[in-house]
Amino acid sequence: MTSDLKLPAAIFAAIVVLIAIPFLLDYFFEIRRPLLLEARIVTATGVDPVFSEGRKRVGPGEPVEAVVALRVGRRGTEGQWLAPVDRMALDGEEMEHVKSSKWPEAGRALRVFWFSVESTNLGGSLSPENAGERLQYRSFLATEMGRGLRAQRLPDTHNDDHIGEQSTSSAGGSGTVRLYARVEVVETLSDLRPLQAVTTIGVEAVFDPGFPTISRSVDFGGAVNDDVGELFRLPGFEPKSEGGEWNEATTPAFGMSFTDLVSKRFVTSSRTLAAVAVAGRADVDLESFDRLGSVEITEDRANCRGRALEWGTDVVEGDVLIDGDHWWVLLGDDGNGQLDPADAVLHCWGRPPERTTLWASLESETLTVEHARYAD
Fold it and tell me: What is the pLDDT of residues 223-237, one digit of tens each?
């Protein structure tokens, strides 16, 4: 190349380099940025303060906290875990992590959307043909949980929002809740589009042992098993099976019997709610109960052969009343010493369980039911 051409070529090359330098610096800076690689929900309780995955069973009034743990790293690295907690265990092992609730980079922030995972239907009837369709779960946005890595509280029930009122009376905050979260990295919290986003384990893995689930029991006292509280907030379906066993109504769709799904705190029914209340397990048949006679219930009385039933002698806490597939669990007297429609019962019939009065749970003004007692 002649000297006359070398100078323009050098100038052109210098201009190209000057133009390229900012782009190269931006590229180098971008590939060095931390990446949001994974998110998991971990929970801790008053009894077990180490935050970990999976289902937790907690007693009445026991505190529960939920946070999202993040795996953050640069391109080509495994990264490290970050969470706003002192102690955390993943995959069964306690591990070191960065204790923080902030994104590890200036000028960017974290935004968390918390969800509850609930049945799309409150309840109804269930058969082998419709179980897969009716007993579906999905995520519901739970704004009451806040927007941070640490949830402000456990979620409300949301699958009943469309009816404008709570579907049941969840006694003492009892019941089973399942959690899901989406975590985003943004420049400002008002940004419409995130720069990065990941989600926690999804609803398709609801039976996975690591799915974040909280089941809270309740103390009803007396002969009623505390574990029945874990069935609150679950859908209440009545399983039917034409020419077959009711317990197999869910087997074609889920590969599990109905009572297996109750044990996993996925669904309940009138009969299985009563079974857990008196025996602590769902797979209790009618033959396990002593039959004590028929009771006629009207708006103002409950009589057996024309006489009132006295609490403590004729009836006790944990006794059941049965009308076909519809079961009630007696909780206690309203104060007059006799069984009557104002007494408290546990009840589930085509809807989630609730604690209510006998009269409020009846579907007709006069009903004759069978009185039975679990023969443990």
Answer: 899 999 999 999 999
